[in-house]
Write a structure and sequence with these properties.
alpha/beta, Methyltransferase, Cobalt-precorrin-4 Transmethylase, Domain 2, 5-stranded parallel beta sheet, 5-stranded mixed beta sheet, 9 helices, about 30% helix, elongated, cytoplasm, transferase, SAM_MeTrfase_RsmI_CS, EC 2.1.1.198
Length: about 250
């Protein structure tokens, strides 16, 4: 169900200010939906969805019948203005993405920033997000990591690779199936063919899979195996370079 925001009845401005909820939804397995997320989605006045058609089956499964409005990267600047008005009128609103936590490589950041400008309360529920299980089962250090999401498609992509090649923390990237092999080729060029990586796909779903090895080994695997679903790529950090003159300085300090 897709509605236009203008169809909502406006209350007077004397009502208490509403709250914006960011509600994570399952990235594949509906059993990962939390009780709290279901309750909030049933209690809010309206729901904002990245794609109303994608969210409809999930909402129906949990018997959530609130009105659903589209809020995506193509209309978020325009729709955010109307959303802020309804929040100021006392409406409680929940934002969901197609899967996972809103604003993580999905719309949400701009709306949150606008809400905070008007001192509107923002509450993000804990829940599913793809990069956490991929990182934890990669076998790479988890105490320090950097999340890059999707790399630029063209402009700035090479520059980003060169910068990340020196990154000593575990690197997390998102990638789509049709660009995976090209990205692995680029990683071999900028990170080195022997850099260790872990690639997860279809997380929480029936055909969940994680492939670990060098960049070349993982590329060879996916050249002959299915490349379906969204991919999370974890890259081992670059080896730390010893600081020049460290020991000399240590001796001088003694």
């Amino acid at each position: 169900m897709d509605h236009r925001l203008s169809t909502i009845d406006s209350n007077n401005m004397n009502n208490p200010i509403g709250k914006l909820y960011l509600v994570p939804t399952p990235i594949g397995n509906l059993e990962d939906m939390t009780f709290r997320a279901i309750r909030v989605l049933k209690e809010v006045d309206l729901i904002l969805a990245e794609d109303t058609r994608t969210s409809a089956p999930m909402l129906k499964h949990f018997e959530i019948h609130q009105k659903v409005f589209a809020h995506h990267q193509h209309n978020e600047h325009q729709s955010s203005n109307e959303i802020i008005k309804f929040l100021l009128q006392g409406k409680n609103i929940a934002l969901i993405s197609d899967a996972g936590t809103p604003a993580i490589s999905d719309p949400g950041f701009f709306l949150v920033r606008e809400a905070l400008k008007f001192n509107i309360a923002v509450e993000c529920l804990p829940g599913a997000t793809a990069f956490v299980p991929a990182l934890v089962n990669s076998g790479f250090p988890t105490d320090k990591f950097c999340f890059e999401g999707f790399l630029p498609l063209k402009k700035g992509r090479q520059t980003r690779y060169k910068f990340l090649a020196e990154e000593e923390r575990t690197i997390i990237l998102y990638e789509s199936p049709h660009r995976l092999l090209k990205t692995l080729d680029e990683m071999a060029t900028y990170f080195g063919a022997d850099r260790q990586i872990s690639v997860s796909r279809e997380l929480t779903k029936m055909f969940e899979e994680t492939v670990r090895g060098t960049v070349v080994e993982v590329k060879q695997y996916f050249e002959t195996h299915p490349m379906k679903g969204e991919f999370v790529m974890c890259v081992a950090g670059a080896a730390a370079k010893p600081a020049k003159g460290k020991y000399e300085r240590d001796e001088e300090e003694d």
